[in-house]
Backbone:
């Protein structure tokens, strides 16, 4: 029987069997398609890890690696804090049949010392699994996912439009969603507000939505405001976000949202539905050429013309269609992808199944964003149809 080895001798023996590479070599191999796996614990990685590395704690390595990379021929580069745990990890993977396994000498300590690229460390195994199909898009990737994680989005209204928008933004990993709604779930909501459930009739919509969203994606943060948006709370509730989703079912809230969008320089993704038709646009006050909501609707309509108040019917899929268009625009804005729907109004007619786009230029005389307009504070406009409801 051989002598028991002390720690140093044992590591030396490992080094004879395992290829060691420098962090610079690891970076170069990563660029050629090798998978860099950071095997440190979640808490160690939380403060940062090599860019585009996969975080997979040593304790889960053998259990999860096949799900992540089944190809035994792909080069795997293992990294830990100082280069010792990664030697052990490499040995384990060699035993599992992975053929090209290396350990990064000096680990993350040396990676940092050498000034190599570091990411925020948001991609743990759960995130890699959960977002795999969008991470694979080069236009999203780890950097895009990090943007989504950092994003804070207001969804005004947890109703027909807010339901699909919130569900898809939560699923995509938008880090913080703030839901504003002061209504309770009613049974007549359920044919279109699919974030709610029969068992939650009577519950606050914000709470009901929070339950559904957190069940879909427990990684994100949901903030609920069970209040009506008003002049005296609008800035407090909206400040500090990146994007406003208009899922309001009443004009007072929508005009406040539009005013706050201009004041706080936050893009507003507008959507509205009626019967078999809907429309969508994006108002982005960060751009000089962008119209605002009031370039489209300068003043609130007369009570008799306010369609949402007269309880006009709507086919349940309509807000779903329009909400998904809003969610698409929201993700594009957050990821800075493609051509946003700025300066264009997209109208949808379900019966003919037509989409029609009209140009929507900024109006220099707009009562919202016009050149001569001076902001004099937020204004509560009267609920137009209190009697009709
Ligand atoms: Zn305007």
Residues:
């Amino acid at each position: 029987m051989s002598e028991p080895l002390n720690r140093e001798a044992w590591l030396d023996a490992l080094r004879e069997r395992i290829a060691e590479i420098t962090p610079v070599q690891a970076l170069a191999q990563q660029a050629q398609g090798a998978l860099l796996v950071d095997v440190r614990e979640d808490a160690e990685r939380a403060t940062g890890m090599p860019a585009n590395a996969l975080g997979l704690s040593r304790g889960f390595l053998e259990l999860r690696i096949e799900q992540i990379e089944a190809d035994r021929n792909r080069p795997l580069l293992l990294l830990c804090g100082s280069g010792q745990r990664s030697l052990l990890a490499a040995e384990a993977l060699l035993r599992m049949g992975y053929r090209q396994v290396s350990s990064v000498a000096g680990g993350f300590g040396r990676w940092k010392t050498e000034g190599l690229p570091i990411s925020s460390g948001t991609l743990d195994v759960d995130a890699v699994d959960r977002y795999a199909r969008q991470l694979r898009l080069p236009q999203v990737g780890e950097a895009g996912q990090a943007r989504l994680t950092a994003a804070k989005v207001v969804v005004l209204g947890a109703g027909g439009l807010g339901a699909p928008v919130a569900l898809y933004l939560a699923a995509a990993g938008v880090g913080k969603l703030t839901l504003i709604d002061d209504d309770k779930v009613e049974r007549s909501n359920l044919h279109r507000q699919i974030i709610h459930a029969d068992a939650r009739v009577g519950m606050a919509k914000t709470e009901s939505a929070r339950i559904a969203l957190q069940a879909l994606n427990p990684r994100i943060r949901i903030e609920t405001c069970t209040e009506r948006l008003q002049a005296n709370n609008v800035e407090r509730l909206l400040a500090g976000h990146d994007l406003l989703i208009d899922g309001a079912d009443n004009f007072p809230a929508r005009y406040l949202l539009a005013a706050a969008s201009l004041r706080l320089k936050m893009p507003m993704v507008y959507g509205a539905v009626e019967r078999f038709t809907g429309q969508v646009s994006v108002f982005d006050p960060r751009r000089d050429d962008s119209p605002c909501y009031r370039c489209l609707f300068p003043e609130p309509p007369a009570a008799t013309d306010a369609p949402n108040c007269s309880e006009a019917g709507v086919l349940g899929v309509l807000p779903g269609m329009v909400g998904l268009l809003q969610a698409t625009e929201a993700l594009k804005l957050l990821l800075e992808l493609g051509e946003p729907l700025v300066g264009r109004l997209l109208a949808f007619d379900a019966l003919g199944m037509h989409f029609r786009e009209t140009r929507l230029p900024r109006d220099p005389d707009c009562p919202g964003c016009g050149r001569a307009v001076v902001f004099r504070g937020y204004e509560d406009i009267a609920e137009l149809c209190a009697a009709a409801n």
